[in-house]
Amino acid sequence: MDFTQYSVNDFVADESFQAYVADAGSAAGQFWQAWLTQHPAQQLAADQAHALVQGLGPRQLFPVPAELKQQELLRLRQALGYEEPRPWLRWQRRTRRLAGAGALALLAAAAWWQWPAGTGPTTRYVAGPQQPRTLTLPDGSVVVLNGNATLTTARRWPAAAPREVWLTGEAYFRVTHLAPAAVRDVATAPASAKFVVHAGGLDIVVLGTQFNVNSQPASTKVVLSSGKVAVARRAWFTTENVLMQPGDLVETTAAAPALARRHVQPALYSAWTQGQLRLQQTSVRELAQLLRDAYGWEVIATDPALLGQTLTGVLPANDSTLLLPALAKSLGIEATRRGNVVRLQPLAR
Description:
This protein is of the alpha+beta class. It has 9 helices and 18 strands.
């Protein structure tokens, strides 16, 4: 198959590409990442297809009237700035055409669910590879996009509606508080005071606060630095809700969609915005969890006693080739990585 001729629809309909979106660490994920590195001309179409497939998420979908499907799909594609698909080539198999039609119908359903009526023209911000980008939104809110992240917003926010953005990848938000001083509860605040981030099947609602969101193909994590955040996950005819407190990490994954909460050190999860991990009596166990969350690495300590050691100091946050050697030197151990597995072990004597 000549993947260099793939359109957005071709990528969406390809089962191996869908597997890549679901799990970037799978064999299919490794293949597509390597192939896209070798064929950068197809990166834009692949990114657009990735966003469409990811929009389905792990959720169930409400049925959508047939007459709305094409209309909503067109609106989603226009909102995200997608080009109209080129005509199908004759050499493409009929089964792929049918699969593509089915996938696009489902994507139309996802669009109907995720994109509110009246969104109108949008603006899409993209951060380059390993190039964090800082944005100031019209309301004064500041967003720092991590490398390869994208943020989509309406060009104009209606005065009576929430400020809404759509995120793929990782970003740190410092949201401007627009609610009257007496309004402190997210649930009862007027719509015009709310700021909503849609990411990986979650609706993250705040008034004015600071938090980190990391939305990847297989999981989405929210870490709250200050204030309060209401997180909602839509599942069939119900909505699961969690009200986060500072220090909370809330996560949903493709394997376990239900919202899970645990307590973390928020500063570690936003350290990438400064390029440095500032550790203060941080245990290796906590650091291992951070490496799992931030890099997708599985950390194995050959000596369990290593996990109880603590670190105080500064480590590089945004360059994995520097992070592990610095960690090993700080602990006086050996740290090696093969694929997504990191092994920590005492130095050989």
